[in-house]
Amino acid sequence: MTTERLEFKTEVKQLLDLMIHSLYSHKEVFLRELISNASDAIDRARYESLTDSDILEQDGSWKIKITVDKDAATLMISDNGIGMDHAGVVEALGTIAHSGTKEFLAALQSKEVKNNPELIGQFGVGFYSSFMVADKITVLSRKAGKKDKKGIQWESTGDGTYTVSDVEKETKGTDVILHLKDDEKKYLQQWEIESVIKKYSDFIEHPICMDVETEVDSTLKKGEKVKVTEEKTFNSMKALWLKDKSELTEDEYKEFYKHMSHDFTPPAKVIHYKAEGTSEFTALLYIPSRAPVNILYKDYKMGPMLYVKRVQIMDHCEDLLPQYLRFAKGVVDSSDLPLNVSREILQHNRQMDIMKTSITKKILDTLDEMKTGDYDNYLKIYEEFGRILKEGVHFDLSRREAIADLLLFPSTKIDAGKFRTLQEYVENMKEGQEEIYYIVGTALNEALRSPYLEAFTKKDYEVLVFLDDIDDFIFSGFEYKGKKMKSITKGDMALDKEEKEEKDKAQKKYEKFIDLVKDILKDDVKDVRFSGRLTDTICCLVADEGDLDPQMEKLLKSMGQELPPMQRILEINPTHPLFASMNVIFENDKKSPILEEYIRLLYDQALVLEGSKPKDPGAFSKLIAKLMVENAGTAS
Ligand code: ADP
143 and 85 in one domain? Predict the structure, then answer.
């Protein structure tokens, strides 16, 4: 027998170190993790056996078996699943197959995980949790589908290295043998094992069995008892989703959610229904009450588990949900799909499309019902997933209005912490108002103080506040109930006819002065014009109609995106006294040097107002200081 000694990858060493030295509560989750691995291995074998009959066990019955050896103090979890070969073992049990390893290790050291180590399961490193209770682990495995008895033995004491050797193994599948620590021997007791299984693994679809000794009446001697060994199944294996709603309690739904998602916070909403007609299937879906830690990672796997007539086909079937509902979890069990479906077939399957349409509609309808009938809970879900849901307005053209109806926005007409729907906005629009106004910002307070809102506030127009990074991208160009969405920091703006006429008159009257401003700022701005949105502030910068919103531009730049330099339009408030004074200087001496200084200062002020830096902060500060000295001179 050749034995190789190999080193764990660094992240496994760190993980084991933490696992062994800092996690003390809920150690029993190790058993859930091993059983879940065994069950996954069986699912894979069963799935592959549909096309490769060599993989089928002779008796065809899939099983997870627990064996205790009290003398040797070992606990063995065996399965007749897919098994592993040499390369598979080194890959699976020497590394962590998780791209967010750094985040994971950080999370592991966080208080939340230290107090709730059951969260570990979320990250897919369940196997190593066995080192919480074992000081040595031996894994014997033989890959299913091979005729010879060549197997592999993996062994480690969790100290940084492990050994791998070739062995003979009678049966296909995997045995995980835990050599229990002295103070963890309670896991040799049948009742302890049984209660952990009932608690965490009751819904596992394969029988989890153990040989137990019971006393029965002797058939030979009346009145005497004899001991017999019987195989007992500890889990109920019920496919919860196939039961009728009326048979299920809230607790059962919650337990199943935990089991399936490894999320230990109860879900915010359960959706359970049977579809009949063109497609027959059952869906048990959950909307979590908080976003999974990894939802923003690239390797986040979305989509419910897919079963065909109780047989699990896939862990995450992403073709059953649109991306913008990727937070929903659950199980979908179809009666129509063939058992041996491949990923490629699924992608072009009509049944899949029907199911996806039905599930999408059901989730959106449920959210809508919650918004009307259970607003507080809806708000909680919305805070977690609203940003994701919004993507649907852009990507799902056939449902964009239904999705838009689910959205909530802060607005200039309601208190902070409260929200407006688009429907409410439209109902409250002023007479003659044709567009839905919005302002993009990063913080509500700041956005509400924006000078861009002046005219809107004065004339009592409501403006929605968009605070999500993707908002401008999603909504520019979107029409809700025939009303266009319009950013108030973009394009020319005149709130009523009268105002427009006045603006045009001023534009004509002061044409020459405006030309001078344009000339002095020609390298900085695209255009200079009078503003229809200012009442108290002297000037502001706005984006051209088709340009990127300035907030969006800042955001993209902060994310490292290269953008072409974007020139904006300087808008001047013709009713501001400063403008009148500047015009007097202009009328007296068109070449006055003061004029140029003031015009540059005007531009810098506009930059400051939109949250940017003056073009030349040093020069800006000097000019202000000079003006203050002059003013102080006249004031004293
Ligand atoms: P996860 O199960 O979340 O992937 P684990 O650390 O528990 O993470 O297991 C790592 C990998 O080891 C599994 O993905 C699987 O490939 C392999 N593995 C673990 N247990 C078994 C088993 N009983 N049979 C076959 N493969 C297994």
Answer: yes
Ligand 1 atom 12, closest CA: 92
Does 78 lie in the same domain as 17? yes
**What is the Cβ-side half-sphere exposure of residue 180, based on CA atoms within 13 angstroms?**
22
Determine the Cα–Cα distance for residues 376 and 300; give it in Å rounded to an integer.
Answer: 28
State whether residue 66 is helix, strand or coil.
strand
Is the CB of 360 inside a 6 Å radius of any atom of ligand 1? no
DSSP 420: B
Rounded to an integer, the average pLDDT of 277-305 is 88
Tell me what the mean pLDDT of segment 496-520 comes to.
86
Q: What's the confidence (pLDDT) of residue 458?
A: 87
The residue with greater pLDDT, 72 or 609, is: 72
Place 21 in a pLDDT band, splitting at 50, 70 and 90. confident
pLDDT at 131: 92
Q: How much distance in Å is there from the Cα of 107 to the middle of ligand 1? A: 21
Which whole number is the average pLDDT over 85-103? 76
- 393 located within any domain: no
- Examine the domain organization and report whether 94 and 138 are in the same domain: yes
Using CB atoms within 10 Å of the CB of residue 287, give its burial: 0 to 12 exposed, 13 to 18 middle, 19+ buried. Answer: buried
Ligand 1 centre and the CA of 82: distance in Å? 11
3-state secondary structure of 439: strand
* pLDDT tens digit sequence for 169-200: 999 999 999 999 999 999 999 999 999 998 77
In this prediction, residue 490 has a pLDDT band, given cuts at 50, 70 and 90, of: confident
**CATH assignment of the domain containing 206:** 3.30.565.10
Cβ 82 under 6 angstroms from ligand 1: yes
**What pLDDT was estimated at residue 65?**
97
Domain shared by 217 and 244, yes or no: no
Residue 38 Cβ inside 6 Å of ligand 1? The answer reads: yes
Query: Are 203 and 249 in the same domain?
Result: no
Confidence of residue 24 (pLDDT cuts 50, 70, 90): low
Ligand 1 contacts CB of residue 104 (under 6 A): no
Six token digits for residue 597: 């200084």
Average pLDDT over residues 614-624: 91
266 shares its domain with 361: yes
The CATH code of the domain that includes 510 is: 1.20.120.790
Q: Record the tokens describing residue 630, joined without a space.
A: 């002059």
Kindly state the helix (H) or strand (E) to which residue 65 belongs, with its residue range. Answer: strand 64-69
Q: Is the CB of 41 under 6 A from ligand 1?
A: yes
The answer to whether residues 225 and 246 belong to one domain is no
DSSP 543: B
Chain centroid to Cα 323, Å, comes to 10
pLDDT on residue 25: 67
pLDDT of 335 reads 86
Question: Cβ(81) to ligand 1 under 6 A?
Answer: yes
Q: How far apart are CA 148 and CA 90, in angstroms?
A: 21
Lookup: tokens for 422 = 């688009």
Nearest atom in ligand 1 to the alpha carbon of residue 126 is: 7
Task: Work out the average pLDDT over 454-470.
Answer: 91
Domain end call among 340, 375, 410: 375
Domain boundary among 229, 257, 288: 229
- 185 and 282 assigned to the same domain: no
Range of the domain at 51: 3-229
Task: Report the chain's terminal Cα–Cα distance, integer Å.
Answer: 100
In a domain, 539, yes or no: yes
Q: How confident is the prediction for the chain on average, in pLDDT?
A: 88
Q: Is residue 100 part of a domain?
A: yes
Per the structure, the count of domains in the chain is 3
* CB 94 less than 6 A from any atom of ligand 1: no
* Model pLDDT for residues 325-341, shown as the tens digit of each residue: 999 999 999 988 876 66
| pLDDT score, position 102 | 63
CATH at residue 276: 3.30.230.80
Domain membership flag for residue 112: yes
